[in-house]
Protein backbone atom coordinates (compact mmCIF):
# COMPACT_ATOMS: atom_id res chain seq x y z
CA UNK A 1 0.00 0.00 0.00
CA UNK A 2 1.38 3.40 -1.03
CA UNK A 3 1.13 6.40 1.25
CA UNK A 4 -0.26 8.45 -1.64
CA UNK A 5 -3.34 6.21 -1.61
CA UNK A 6 -4.17 7.18 1.96
CA UNK A 7 -6.51 9.82 3.32
CA UNK A 8 -5.03 12.58 5.50
CA UNK A 9 -6.13 10.75 8.66
CA UNK A 10 -4.59 7.51 7.42
CA UNK A 11 -1.36 9.30 6.52
CA UNK A 12 -1.06 10.58 10.09
CA UNK A 13 -1.51 7.05 11.41
CA UNK A 14 0.98 5.64 8.88
CA UNK A 15 3.72 8.14 9.75
CA UNK A 16 3.21 7.72 13.52
CA UNK A 17 3.41 3.93 13.43
CA UNK A 18 7.17 3.66 12.98
CA UNK A 19 7.90 5.61 16.17
CA UNK A 20 4.92 4.41 18.20
CA UNK A 21 3.47 7.92 18.44
CA UNK A 22 -0.16 8.28 19.51
CA UNK A 23 -2.54 9.75 16.93
CA UNK A 24 -5.53 11.43 18.56
CA UNK A 25 -8.38 11.98 16.10
CA UNK A 26 -11.04 12.82 18.67
CA UNK A 27 -11.06 16.64 18.38
CA UNK A 28 -11.60 16.55 14.63
CA UNK A 29 -15.26 17.03 13.69
CA UNK A 30 -18.04 14.44 13.92
CA UNK A 31 -17.69 10.67 14.26
CA UNK A 32 -18.30 10.02 10.57
CA UNK A 33 -16.16 12.91 9.33
CA UNK A 34 -13.45 11.97 6.79
CA UNK A 35 -10.75 13.36 9.07
CA UNK A 36 -11.67 10.66 11.65
CA UNK A 37 -12.14 7.72 9.29
CA UNK A 38 -9.46 5.04 8.92
CA UNK A 39 -9.86 1.93 6.80
CA UNK A 40 -9.26 -1.42 8.52
CA UNK A 41 -7.19 -2.53 5.52
CA UNK A 42 -4.71 0.26 6.23
CA UNK A 43 -4.33 -0.84 9.84
CA UNK A 44 -3.79 -4.44 8.70
CA UNK A 45 -1.10 -3.40 6.26
CA UNK A 46 0.66 -1.40 8.96
CA UNK A 47 0.63 -4.22 11.48
CA UNK A 48 1.85 -6.83 9.01
CA UNK A 49 4.32 -4.84 6.95
CA UNK A 50 4.45 -1.28 8.24
CA UNK A 51 7.48 1.02 8.13
CA UNK A 52 10.15 0.70 10.80
CA UNK A 53 12.82 3.13 11.98
CA UNK A 54 16.07 2.04 13.57
CA UNK A 55 16.13 2.61 17.31
CA UNK A 56 12.34 3.03 17.53
CA UNK A 57 9.60 0.68 18.70
CA UNK A 58 6.80 0.53 16.17
CA UNK A 59 3.29 0.60 17.61
CA UNK A 60 -0.24 1.29 16.44
CA UNK A 61 -1.71 3.88 18.79
CA UNK A 62 -4.87 5.58 17.58
CA UNK A 63 -7.57 7.38 19.56
CA UNK A 64 -11.03 8.38 18.39
CA UNK A 65 -11.01 6.89 14.88
CA UNK A 66 -13.91 5.45 12.95
CA UNK A 67 -12.59 2.19 11.54
CA UNK A 68 -14.39 1.09 8.40
CA UNK A 69 -14.28 -2.37 6.93
CA UNK A 70 -13.16 -5.55 8.67
CA UNK A 71 -9.89 -5.68 10.57
CA UNK A 72 -8.84 -9.20 9.59
CA UNK A 73 -5.73 -10.51 11.36
CA UNK A 74 -6.65 -14.16 11.50
CA UNK A 75 -3.59 -16.34 12.19
CA UNK A 76 -1.33 -13.35 11.68
CA UNK A 77 1.75 -12.62 13.78
CA UNK A 78 1.82 -9.03 15.04
CA UNK A 79 4.85 -7.99 17.08
CA UNK A 80 3.69 -4.41 17.60
CA UNK A 81 1.56 -3.00 20.39
CA UNK A 82 -2.04 -2.37 19.28
CA UNK A 83 -3.93 0.42 21.03
CA UNK A 84 -7.16 1.53 19.41
CA UNK A 85 -8.94 3.55 22.07
CA UNK A 86 -12.19 5.53 21.78
CA UNK A 87 -12.67 4.07 18.31
CA UNK A 88 -15.83 2.99 16.54
CA UNK A 89 -15.64 -0.21 14.49
CA UNK A 90 -18.07 -0.84 11.66
CA UNK A 91 -17.30 -4.59 11.76
CA UNK A 92 -16.12 -6.95 14.44
CA UNK A 93 -12.31 -7.38 14.39
CA UNK A 94 -11.30 -10.90 13.38
CA UNK A 95 -8.26 -12.02 15.36
CA UNK A 96 -8.82 -15.78 15.60
CA UNK A 97 -5.52 -17.65 15.91
CA UNK A 98 -3.48 -14.45 15.79
CA UNK A 99 -0.31 -13.90 17.81
CA UNK A 100 -0.26 -10.42 19.31
CA UNK A 101 2.08 -8.49 21.55
CA UNK A 102 -0.54 -6.37 23.35
CA UNK A 103 -4.13 -5.43 22.57
CA UNK A 104 -6.10 -2.48 23.92
CA UNK A 105 -9.51 -1.42 22.59
CA UNK A 106 -10.53 0.55 25.65
CA UNK A 107 -13.51 2.92 25.42
CA UNK A 108 -14.32 1.69 21.92
CA UNK A 109 -17.62 0.69 20.32
CA UNK A 110 -17.66 -2.65 18.49
CA UNK A 111 -20.29 -4.94 16.97
CA UNK A 112 -18.34 -7.89 18.39
CA UNK A 113 -14.87 -9.39 18.70
CA UNK A 114 -13.66 -12.69 17.24
CA UNK A 115 -10.35 -13.69 18.86
CA UNK A 116 -10.74 -17.40 19.63
CA UNK A 117 -7.49 -19.35 20.01
CA UNK A 118 -5.46 -16.15 19.79
CA UNK A 119 -2.25 -15.68 21.74
CA UNK A 120 -1.36 -12.41 23.41
CA UNK A 121 2.05 -12.00 25.05
CA UNK A 122 0.81 -9.08 27.15
CA UNK A 123 -2.61 -7.99 28.38
CA UNK A 124 -5.94 -7.53 26.62
CA UNK A 125 -7.79 -4.38 27.62
CA UNK A 126 -11.49 -3.95 26.78
CA UNK A 127 -12.18 -1.47 29.56
CA UNK A 128 -15.39 0.54 29.10
CA UNK A 129 -16.01 -0.92 25.67
CA UNK A 130 -19.56 -1.08 24.33
CA UNK A 131 -19.92 -4.28 22.37
CA UNK A 132 -23.14 -5.12 20.56
CA UNK A 133 -22.39 -8.76 19.80
CA UNK A 134 -20.48 -11.80 21.00
CA UNK A 135 -16.94 -11.55 22.30
CA UNK A 136 -15.22 -14.79 21.27
CA UNK A 137 -12.05 -15.50 23.25
CA UNK A 138 -12.47 -19.24 23.67
CA UNK A 139 -9.15 -21.06 23.85
CA UNK A 140 -7.16 -17.80 23.90
CA UNK A 141 -3.85 -17.63 25.76
CA UNK A 142 -3.20 -14.31 27.49
CA UNK A 143 0.14 -13.89 29.23
CA UNK A 144 -1.01 -10.79 31.08
CA UNK A 145 -4.41 -9.77 32.41
CA UNK A 146 -7.80 -9.48 30.74
CA UNK A 147 -9.55 -6.19 31.53
CA UNK A 148 -13.31 -5.86 31.08
CA UNK A 149 -13.98 -3.21 33.71
CA UNK A 150 -17.15 -1.18 33.05
CA UNK A 151 -17.63 -2.84 29.68
CA UNK A 152 -21.13 -3.37 28.26
CA UNK A 153 -21.83 -6.45 26.15
CA UNK A 154 -25.22 -7.18 24.62
CA UNK A 155 -26.32 -10.41 22.97
CA UNK A 156 -27.60 -10.47 19.42
CA UNK A 157 -28.32 -14.23 19.41
CA UNK A 158 -29.80 -15.68 22.59
CA UNK A 159 -28.54 -19.15 21.67
CA UNK A 160 -24.88 -18.07 21.61
CA UNK A 161 -22.86 -17.05 24.68
CA UNK A 162 -22.28 -13.33 24.56
CA UNK A 163 -18.90 -13.54 26.32
CA UNK A 164 -17.00 -16.69 25.37
CA UNK A 165 -14.04 -17.38 27.65
CA UNK A 166 -14.21 -21.18 27.60
CA UNK A 167 -10.80 -22.88 27.80
CA UNK A 168 -9.12 -19.48 28.02
CA UNK A 169 -5.78 -19.29 29.83
CA UNK A 170 -4.97 -16.04 31.63
CA UNK A 171 -1.62 -15.79 33.42
CA UNK A 172 -2.76 -12.84 35.55
CA UNK A 173 -6.14 -11.50 36.70
CA UNK A 174 -9.46 -11.32 34.93
CA UNK A 175 -10.67 -7.87 35.96
CA UNK A 176 -14.31 -7.12 35.13
CA UNK A 177 -15.61 -4.77 37.80
CA UNK A 178 -18.88 -3.04 36.90
CA UNK A 179 -19.23 -5.26 33.85
CA UNK A 180 -22.69 -5.16 32.24
CA UNK A 181 -23.73 -8.22 30.24
CA UNK A 182 -27.03 -9.11 28.60
CA UNK A 183 -26.69 -12.81 27.81
CA UNK A 184 -24.59 -15.79 28.84
CA UNK A 185 -20.96 -15.78 29.96
CA UNK A 186 -19.10 -19.01 29.22
CA UNK A 187 -16.09 -19.83 31.41
CA UNK A 188 -16.05 -23.65 31.09
CA UNK A 189 -12.56 -25.00 31.59
CA UNK A 190 -11.05 -21.52 31.93
CA UNK A 191 -7.79 -21.10 33.86
CA UNK A 192 -7.06 -17.81 35.61
CA UNK A 193 -3.74 -17.72 37.44
CA UNK A 194 -4.71 -14.71 39.53
CA UNK A 195 -8.16 -13.57 40.66
CA UNK A 196 -11.48 -13.42 38.81
CA UNK A 197 -12.98 -10.06 39.74
CA UNK A 198 -16.64 -9.38 38.94
CA UNK A 199 -17.37 -6.99 41.78
CA UNK A 200 -20.38 -4.69 41.17
CA UNK A 201 -21.14 -6.47 37.90
CA UNK A 202 -24.67 -6.73 36.49
CA UNK A 203 -25.35 -9.92 34.56
CA UNK A 204 -28.71 -10.81 33.09
CA UNK A 205 -29.97 -13.87 31.24
CA UNK A 206 -33.31 -14.64 32.94
CA UNK A 207 -34.26 -17.46 30.57
CA UNK A 208 -31.09 -19.54 31.05
CA UNK A 209 -27.60 -19.65 32.44
CA UNK A 210 -25.96 -16.35 33.14
CA UNK A 211 -22.54 -17.91 33.94
CA UNK A 212 -21.28 -21.30 32.77
CA UNK A 213 -18.08 -22.03 34.68
CA UNK A 214 -17.79 -25.81 34.92
CA UNK A 215 -14.25 -26.94 35.84
CA UNK A 216 -13.12 -23.33 36.28
CA UNK A 217 -9.64 -23.06 37.84
CA UNK A 218 -8.61 -19.88 39.61
CA UNK A 219 -5.23 -19.41 41.25
CA UNK A 220 -6.39 -16.95 43.91
CA UNK A 221 -9.89 -15.57 44.55
CA UNK A 222 -13.25 -15.24 42.83
CA UNK A 223 -14.44 -11.77 43.82
CA UNK A 224 -18.15 -11.38 43.15
CA UNK A 225 -18.98 -8.86 45.86
CA UNK A 226 -22.16 -6.86 45.14
CA UNK A 227 -22.77 -8.98 42.05
CA UNK A 228 -26.28 -8.78 40.62
CA UNK A 229 -27.04 -11.88 38.58
CA UNK A 230 -30.38 -12.75 36.97
CA UNK A 231 -30.20 -16.32 35.72
CA UNK A 232 -28.41 -19.52 36.68
CA UNK A 233 -24.79 -19.56 37.80
CA UNK A 234 -23.25 -22.98 37.12
CA UNK A 235 -19.73 -23.64 38.36
CA UNK A 236 -19.68 -27.39 38.96
CA UNK A 237 -16.21 -28.77 39.65
CA UNK A 238 -14.55 -25.37 40.09
CA UNK A 239 -11.20 -25.14 41.91
CA UNK A 240 -10.68 -21.97 43.95
CA UNK A 241 -7.90 -22.12 46.58
CA UNK A 242 -8.73 -18.66 47.89
CA UNK A 243 -12.20 -17.32 48.56
CA UNK A 244 -15.46 -17.16 46.65
CA UNK A 245 -16.66 -13.75 47.82
CA UNK A 246 -20.40 -13.12 47.41
CA UNK A 247 -20.87 -10.49 50.10
CA UNK A 248 -23.81 -8.14 49.39
CA UNK A 249 -24.61 -10.05 46.19
CA UNK A 250 -28.05 -10.57 44.72
CA UNK A 251 -28.65 -13.92 43.01
CA UNK A 252 -31.98 -14.42 41.31
CA UNK A 253 -33.40 -17.26 39.23
CA UNK A 254 -36.97 -17.83 40.49
CA UNK A 255 -38.28 -21.30 39.78
CA UNK A 256 -34.83 -22.71 39.00
CA UNK A 257 -31.32 -22.96 40.35
CA UNK A 258 -29.76 -19.65 41.28
CA UNK A 259 -26.29 -21.07 41.88
CA UNK A 260 -24.80 -24.52 41.44
CA UNK A 261 -21.37 -24.95 43.01
CA UNK A 262 -21.37 -28.72 43.41
CA UNK A 263 -18.23 -30.92 43.45
CA UNK A 264 -16.08 -27.83 43.98
CA UNK A 265 -12.92 -27.41 46.03
CA UNK A 266 -12.90 -23.94 47.58
CA UNK A 267 -10.83 -22.34 50.32
CA UNK A 268 -13.53 -20.00 51.64
CA UNK A 269 -17.09 -19.15 50.66
CA UNK A 270 -18.50 -15.82 51.85
CA UNK A 271 -22.25 -15.64 51.38
CA UNK A 272 -23.51 -12.92 53.68
CA UNK A 273 -25.17 -9.50 54.02
CA UNK A 274 -27.16 -9.77 50.83
CA UNK A 275 -30.87 -10.32 50.15
CA UNK A 276 -32.30 -13.80 50.22
CA UNK A 277 -31.35 -15.90 47.22
CA UNK A 278 -34.20 -16.35 44.74
CA UNK A 279 -33.93 -19.89 43.44
CA UNK A 280 -32.13 -23.03 44.58
CA UNK A 281 -28.60 -23.12 46.03
CA UNK A 282 -26.65 -26.31 45.26
CA UNK A 283 -23.41 -27.02 47.16
CA UNK A 284 -23.52 -30.82 46.98
CA UNK A 285 -20.30 -32.82 47.26
CA UNK A 286 -18.17 -29.69 47.57
CA UNK A 287 -15.16 -29.31 49.88
CA UNK A 288 -14.91 -25.95 51.61
CA UNK A 289 -12.38 -25.04 54.26
CA UNK A 290 -14.30 -22.10 55.70
CA UNK A 291 -17.99 -21.45 55.09
CA UNK A 292 -19.08 -17.93 56.00
CA UNK A 293 -22.82 -18.32 55.54
CA UNK A 294 -25.66 -16.06 56.63
CA UNK A 295 -28.78 -18.18 57.33
CA UNK A 296 -31.05 -15.32 56.20
CA UNK A 297 -29.63 -15.53 52.66
CA UNK A 298 -30.55 -19.19 52.16
CA UNK A 299 -33.49 -19.87 49.82
CA UNK A 300 -36.32 -22.34 50.37
CA UNK A 301 -34.43 -25.04 48.47
CA UNK A 302 -30.87 -25.95 49.44
CA UNK A 303 -28.84 -28.93 48.24
CA UNK A 304 -26.12 -29.86 50.75
CA UNK A 305 -25.74 -33.63 50.32
CA UNK A 306 -22.11 -34.67 51.07
CA UNK A 307 -21.02 -31.05 51.55
CA UNK A 308 -17.84 -30.94 53.65
CA UNK A 309 -16.58 -27.89 55.51
CA UNK A 310 -14.05 -27.38 58.29
CA UNK A 311 -15.40 -24.24 59.98
CA UNK A 312 -18.70 -22.37 59.85
CA UNK A 313 -19.36 -18.73 60.69
CA UNK A 314 -21.00 -16.61 61.99
CA UNK A 315 -21.67 -18.45 65.23
CA UNK A 316 -25.46 -18.49 65.57
CA UNK A 317 -27.82 -20.76 67.54
CA UNK A 318 -28.49 -24.15 65.94
CA UNK A 319 -32.15 -23.23 65.55
CA UNK A 320 -31.03 -20.89 62.75
CA UNK A 321 -28.78 -23.47 61.07
CA UNK A 322 -30.96 -26.58 61.22
CA UNK A 323 -33.58 -25.41 58.68
CA UNK A 324 -30.98 -25.53 55.90
CA UNK A 325 -30.59 -29.28 56.53
CA UNK A 326 -34.33 -29.77 56.17
CA UNK A 327 -34.63 -28.15 52.75
CA UNK A 328 -32.71 -30.77 50.76
CA UNK A 329 -35.60 -32.40 48.88
CA UNK A 330 -36.98 -33.76 52.14
CA UNK A 331 -34.20 -36.37 52.20
CA UNK A 332 -32.42 -37.36 55.40
CA UNK A 333 -28.69 -36.68 55.15
CA UNK A 334 -26.88 -37.73 58.37
CA UNK A 335 -23.63 -36.35 56.97
CA UNK A 336 -25.02 -32.81 57.02
CA UNK A 337 -25.90 -33.10 60.71
CA UNK A 338 -22.48 -34.51 61.53
CA UNK A 339 -20.79 -31.62 59.72
CA UNK A 340 -22.83 -29.07 61.64
CA UNK A 341 -22.18 -30.89 64.91
CA UNK A 342 -18.43 -30.89 64.26
CA UNK A 343 -18.50 -27.16 63.44
CA UNK A 344 -20.11 -26.35 66.80
CA UNK A 345 -17.70 -28.60 68.67
CA UNK A 346 -14.71 -26.86 67.13
CA UNK A 347 -15.96 -23.63 68.67
CA UNK A 348 -16.46 -25.33 72.04
CA UNK A 349 -20.26 -25.10 71.95
CA UNK A 350 -21.13 -28.63 73.11
CA UNK A 351 -24.70 -27.64 73.97
CA UNK A 352 -25.37 -26.59 70.38
CA UNK A 353 -23.72 -29.77 69.12
CA UNK A 354 -26.06 -31.89 71.28
CA UNK A 355 -29.08 -30.02 69.95
CA UNK A 356 -27.99 -30.76 66.39
CA UNK A 357 -27.60 -34.45 67.22
CA UNK A 358 -31.04 -34.47 68.82
CA UNK A 359 -32.48 -32.90 65.66
CA UNK A 360 -30.70 -35.57 63.62
CA UNK A 361 -32.40 -38.36 65.57
CA UNK A 362 -35.79 -36.71 65.24
CA UNK A 363 -35.32 -36.28 61.49
CA UNK A 364 -34.18 -39.90 61.17
CA UNK A 365 -37.31 -40.99 63.04
CA UNK A 366 -39.51 -39.72 60.22
CA UNK A 367 -37.89 -42.25 57.85
CA UNK A 368 -38.66 -45.30 60.03
CA UNK A 369 -41.68 -47.66 59.96
CA UNK A 370 -44.43 -47.09 62.51
CA UNK A 371 -42.92 -49.26 65.24
CA UNK A 372 -39.54 -47.53 64.82
CA UNK A 373 -41.22 -44.13 65.05
CA UNK A 374 -43.09 -45.28 68.18
CA UNK A 375 -39.89 -46.40 69.87
CA UNK A 376 -38.24 -43.16 68.79
CA UNK A 377 -40.97 -41.10 70.43
CA UNK A 378 -40.46 -43.08 73.63
CA UNK A 379 -36.71 -42.40 73.60
CA UNK A 380 -37.32 -38.74 72.80
CA UNK A 381 -39.87 -38.27 75.57
CA UNK A 382 -37.87 -40.11 78.20
CA UNK A 383 -34.25 -39.08 77.74
CA UNK A 384 -34.16 -37.05 74.52
CA UNK A 385 -32.31 -39.86 72.70
CA UNK A 386 -29.65 -39.75 75.40
CA UNK A 387 -28.83 -36.09 74.85
CA UNK A 388 -30.99 -35.00 77.79
CA UNK A 389 -30.07 -37.43 80.59
CA UNK A 390 -31.54 -35.24 83.31
CA UNK A 391 -34.95 -35.97 81.84
CA UNK A 392 -34.52 -39.65 82.87
CA UNK A 393 -33.72 -38.55 86.41
CA UNK A 394 -36.91 -36.49 86.47
CA UNK A 395 -38.95 -39.47 85.32
CA UNK A 396 -37.26 -41.68 87.90
CA UNK A 397 -37.91 -39.31 90.79
CA UNK A 398 -41.53 -38.78 89.74
CA UNK A 399 -42.23 -42.51 89.52
CA UNK A 400 -40.36 -43.10 92.76
CA UNK A 401 -42.61 -40.60 94.51
CA UNK A 402 -45.79 -42.11 93.03
CA UNK A 403 -44.79 -45.67 93.92
CA UNK A 404 -43.56 -44.79 97.40
CA UNK A 405 -46.79 -43.02 98.31
CA UNK A 406 -48.98 -45.77 96.82
CA UNK A 407 -47.20 -48.58 98.58
CA UNK A 408 -46.89 -46.66 101.84
CA UNK A 409 -50.66 -46.24 101.95
CA UNK A 410 -51.28 -49.89 101.11
CA UNK A 411 -48.29 -52.16 101.68
CA UNK A 412 -48.25 -55.47 99.75
CA UNK A 413 -48.36 -58.65 101.83
CA UNK A 414 -45.12 -60.60 102.33
CA UNK A 415 -44.57 -63.94 100.64
CA UNK A 416 -43.23 -65.44 103.89
CA UNK A 417 -44.13 -63.39 106.92
CA UNK A 418 -41.48 -64.93 109.15
CA UNK A 419 -38.66 -64.41 106.57
CA UNK A 420 -39.61 -61.09 104.97
CA UNK A 421 -37.60 -57.96 105.85
CA UNK A 422 -39.31 -54.89 107.15
CA UNK A 423 -41.24 -53.30 104.30
CA UNK A 424 -39.83 -50.01 102.95
CA UNK A 425 -42.00 -48.39 100.25
CA UNK A 426 -39.12 -46.28 98.86
CA UNK A 427 -36.67 -49.13 98.39
CA UNK A 428 -39.46 -51.44 97.20
CA UNK A 429 -40.28 -48.93 94.45
CA UNK A 430 -36.58 -48.64 93.58
CA UNK A 431 -36.39 -52.42 93.29
CA UNK A 432 -39.19 -52.28 90.74
CA UNK A 433 -37.74 -49.35 88.76
CA UNK A 434 -34.09 -50.38 88.64
CA UNK A 435 -33.74 -53.67 86.76
CA UNK A 436 -30.11 -54.25 87.73
CA UNK A 437 -29.94 -53.19 91.39
CA UNK A 438 -31.76 -55.18 94.12
CA UNK A 439 -32.44 -54.05 97.69
CA UNK A 440 -34.13 -57.35 98.65
CA UNK A 441 -37.62 -55.80 98.81
CA UNK A 442 -39.22 -56.82 95.51
CA UNK A 443 -38.80 -60.66 95.82
CA UNK A 444 -40.08 -60.66 99.43
CA UNK A 445 -43.52 -59.16 98.79
CA UNK A 446 -46.42 -60.10 96.53
CA UNK A 447 -48.68 -57.20 95.52
CA UNK A 448 -52.27 -57.94 94.58
CA UNK A 449 -54.96 -56.27 92.46
CA UNK A 450 -54.21 -52.64 91.72
CA UNK A 451 -50.87 -52.89 93.50
CA UNK A 452 -49.81 -55.65 91.11
CA UNK A 453 -50.76 -53.56 88.06
CA UNK A 454 -48.77 -50.63 89.45
CA UNK A 455 -45.79 -52.91 90.12
CA UNK A 456 -45.87 -54.26 86.56
CA UNK A 457 -46.09 -50.73 85.16
CA UNK A 458 -43.09 -49.61 87.23
CA UNK A 459 -41.05 -52.62 86.11
CA UNK A 460 -41.91 -51.96 82.43
CA UNK A 461 -41.13 -48.26 82.65
CA UNK A 462 -37.92 -49.02 84.48
CA UNK A 463 -36.76 -51.26 81.67
CA UNK A 464 -37.66 -48.61 79.09
CA UNK A 465 -35.74 -45.94 80.99
CA UNK A 466 -32.74 -48.23 81.40
CA UNK A 467 -32.72 -49.19 77.71
CA UNK A 468 -32.98 -45.62 76.47
CA UNK A 469 -30.31 -44.40 78.87
CA UNK A 470 -27.93 -47.17 77.77
CA UNK A 471 -28.65 -46.39 74.10
CA UNK A 472 -27.99 -42.70 74.69
CA UNK A 473 -24.77 -43.34 76.57
CA UNK A 474 -23.62 -45.73 73.83
CA UNK A 475 -24.24 -43.05 71.17
CA UNK A 476 -22.37 -40.47 73.20
CA UNK A 477 -19.37 -42.74 73.76
CA UNK A 478 -19.25 -43.77 70.09
CA UNK A 479 -19.25 -40.09 68.99
CA UNK A 480 -16.34 -39.34 71.29
Structure description:
The chain has 480 residues and is of the alpha/beta class. 27% of the residues lie in helices and 26% in strands. The chain contains nine helices and 35 strands. The strands form four sheets. Strands 1-3-5-8-12-16-20-24-27-29-31-33-35 form a 13-stranded parallel beta sheet. Strands 9, 10, 13, 14, 17, 18, 21, 22, 25, 28, 30, 32 and 34 form a 13-stranded parallel beta sheet that branches. Helix 6 (370-383) packs across helix 9 (450-479). It is rod-shaped, with a radius of gyration of 37 Å.
Q: What's this model, at a glance?
A:
By secondary structure, this protein is α/β, with parallel strands linked by helices.
Could you estimate the helical fraction of the residues in percent?
25-40%
Q: Count the beta strands.
A: 35
Based on CA atoms alone, the radius of gyration comes out at 37 Å
Largest sheet: 13 strands, parallel
Instruction: List the total number of helices.
Output: 9
| N-to-C CA distance | 83 Å
What would the principal axes of the Cα set say about the shape? rod-shaped
Which secondary-structure class do the elements indicate?
alpha/beta
Question: Which consecutive residue ranges, at least 5 long each, have pLDDT under 50?
Answer: none
Strand order of the largest sheet: 1-3-5-8-12-16-20-24-27-29-31-33-35
How confident is the prediction overall: mean pLDDT? 87
Beta fraction of the residues?
25-35%
